[in-house]
Structure formats: C-alpha cells, structure tokens
Amino acid sequence: MNILANHIACITDPLTTSNCYIISMEQHALIIDPNLPDAIISHLTANHLYPELILLTHEHCDHISGLNRLREIYHCPVLASTDCSNGIQNSKRNMSHIMETYLYFRTHQLCTTPYPEFTCAPADITFVNTHTFTWNSYHCACLQVPGHTLGSTCFIFDHSILFSGDYFIPGEQVITRLPGGDPLAYEKKGRPRLQSLPLSLLTYPGHGSHFILTEEQKHAYGL
C-alpha cells in the first residue's frame, strides 16, 4: 500500500454522495473537493490539522459546497483549472441553481434539505491543460480532462495515487450532459487523456469507493 494512502481521509455527503478527500502530513492538510464544511472542520480540528491548499476536480456544486466557508475560516489558496475557476463563479455552470431538481430526478425523492444557489470567488492558482507542484515532498501532476465539464481535472500524486473527480465513478459511464459538459471535448481530449493513464493507480473517485485501476476497468469504462 502506498504510504500516502494511509494519510487520506474521505468525507461523503449523504445527500449528493460526493466525496471530499483530506490528505494529512503531520499538522499539514490538503483538501480535495470540499463538500460538507462542518464535517471537514470537525475532522481538521480533531486531528489538529491546518489546511494549506484546496484542489478542485471540477466546478459542480456538490464538489465545492464547502469552499466558501473554508476560505472564510482558513484563508488557504485554491488551485483549479482556469475553466473550473470560471465555472465556480456561475450558478448555472456549477449547477447549484438546479441542484434540488437534479437530486429529485436522480433519487425520485423530494429534497428535504434546501440546496441554495451559490457562487464562489475565482481560484487563487489556475492553469490550462497541465500543471505540477510539490506539497510536503509529494509531487502532484494536474491534468485537465474536459468532458464531464470543461474544467474537469485529475490529480496524480507521486505517479501512484489518482483523484479522478467524476471520472471512474464505479458503475457509471462518463456523463457529459450536465451543465458544463462537452461530449466533443471529451472525445477529442478527455478520452485520450484517460486512456493514457497508467494502470495500477490507486484511484479515489468523486463518488463511490477507491479502487486499483486495471485494464478491465478501463475497458468497462469505454476506454
């Protein structure tokens, strides 16, 4: 097992099933796709962690619902693709203006918890296509993978751990019909980039449980 995997916590929103991941090293933390602010803050406080960076896999509201609160409290920078940064500033592109309706059609149940429309300020660090950085000695490659949204991004840590956002969701094919989705961009750029990912990556998706990426899974996913 990759050593970094022992330092990854997952917080799942029971309403939207979105996953937030918190990577910790000593008292340092990195957050990917902040969803439930209270749960995230409780985890950080209980483990004496201070977030140094927030990464966004894409702009949809179920992956950024805790972003504004965390920024207010911790003032930590946010890294995202330029397209994602643009999308979080627009309630139509981030889907928050229709989220209650979307959840109803997805679950066939009325949403008893209000899902207010919201926007976020732009990301502090943006990139186009690819970007790399180092956090606490761990190398991270950021790969923009348009399709699910134009701003969709995969993050690969130390060539071994993949945070895939809303790609590689167990039991689901790629969804490009939601706001910000682009099937042509997926076929031209997104699909080839996913096809090129190496096997055996320990994969943490935006929904569902983590798994090891195999050739069979790629094939089942249409790659």
Write the layout of secondary structure elements.
Blueprint: E1 8-12, E2 19-25, E3 28-32, H1 37-46, E4 50-55, H2 67-74, E5 78-81, H3 82-87, H4 99-107, E6 125-127, E7 130-135, E8 138-144, E9 153-157, E10 161-165, H5 183-195, E11 202-205, E12 211-212, H6 215-220
Parallel strand pairs: 3-4, 4-5, 5-6, 10-11
Antiparallel strand pairs: 1-2, 2-3, 7-8, 8-9, 9-10, 11-12
Descriptive report:
Helices cover about 25% and strands about 25% of the residues. The protein is of the alpha/beta class and about 220 residues long. The chain has one domain: 4-Layer Sandwich (Metallo-beta-lactamase, Chain A). α2 links the parallel β4 and β5. A 6-stranded mixed sheet has the order 1-2-3-4-5-6. The radius of gyration is 16 Å and the shape is globular.
